Amino acid sequence: MYNASYHDQQSRSITVWGEGAVKVTPDTVHIIMMVNSRGNELNEIQQENADRMNNVISSLVAMGIPESSIQTIDYQIHPVYDYVDGVQIFKGYEVVNTIRVTISEISRVGEVVDTAVSSGVNQIGSIQFTIQDQAEYYQKALAQALHDADTKMVTIGSSLQLPNRPIPVKIEEQHVAQPVAFRAVTMAEAGGTPIESGTITVSASLKVRYQMV
Predict the structure, then answer these.
(1) Secondary structure class of 160 (helix, strand, coil)
(2) How far is residue 169's CA from residue 146's CA, in Å, rounded to a whole number?
(3) 3-state SS class at 142
(4) What is the DSSP annotation of 56-124?
(5) Cα three-residue angle 102-105-106, rounded to 5 degrees
(6) Other residues' Cβ atoms within 10 Å of the Cβ of residue 53
(7) More exposed terminus of the chain, fewer Cβ within 10 Å: N or C?
(8) What pTM did the predictor assign?
């Protein structure tokens, strides 16, 4: 993509967009896990939920995950209702305790999930693969984007039969939302199914204005 601007015979410019992308293997994973309990007596299900979550955390710590890598991110208590012939009937309470487990050993994701499920987790929210130091790869993508813009400019200059190679006079970095590898995991998958991280694409985009001389 390019845009040519002719201000006068002495000042002409062409704007080119350059794109760059680097594929990276994730080095960090965040796993969202929940212990969901239901019952009629709130105190009882709160205690039952707490016991199960403590068992989950103890099991994860026993397999080498630091407690600092296990964080409670949500705790909710909801009344549960049913409807019969349009009438609301109280059925008890639901307690949901949610934790986020962060690990750097990507190959152990399946093992961590299996251990948590066998210890009391009954809902896996999501698994999010990320990169710890994304800046390094973004710089490489930026370099690719500049090379891409320069290559396009050379092609355009040749097509226009310009006597001299245009000079870059303004470079603008364009915002690109960096994605993460994200997936939901069902309880059926959690039981011993290998979980693959795949790759993450770090992208960069530049808007480069070249002066035609």
Answers:
(1) coil
(2) 13
(3) helix
(4) HHHHHHHTT--GGGEEEEEEEEEEEEEEETTEEEEEEEEEEEEEEEEES-GGGHHHHHHHHHHHT--EE
(5) 90
(6) 23
(7) N
(8) 0.72
Report the amino acid identity of residue 69.
S
Q: Cα–Cα distance between 141 and 154 in angstroms, integer? A: 20
Q: What tokens does 39 get?
A: 């019952």
The residue type at 44: E
To the nearest 10°, the Cα dihedral for 133, 30, 63, 77? 150
Q: Could you tell me what percentage of the chain is helix, strand and coil, using 3-state DSSP and rounding each to the nearest 5?
A: 30, 45, 25
Say if residue 104 is exposed, middle or buried (CB neighbours under 10 Å; 0-12, 13-18, 19+). Answer: exposed
For residue 113 the two structure tokens come to 């999930």
Tell me the average confidence (pLDDT) per consecutive run of 10 residues in the chain, 213 residues long. Answer: 47 87 91 95 96 97 95 95 88 96 92 94 90 89 94 88 84 75 51 69 92 79
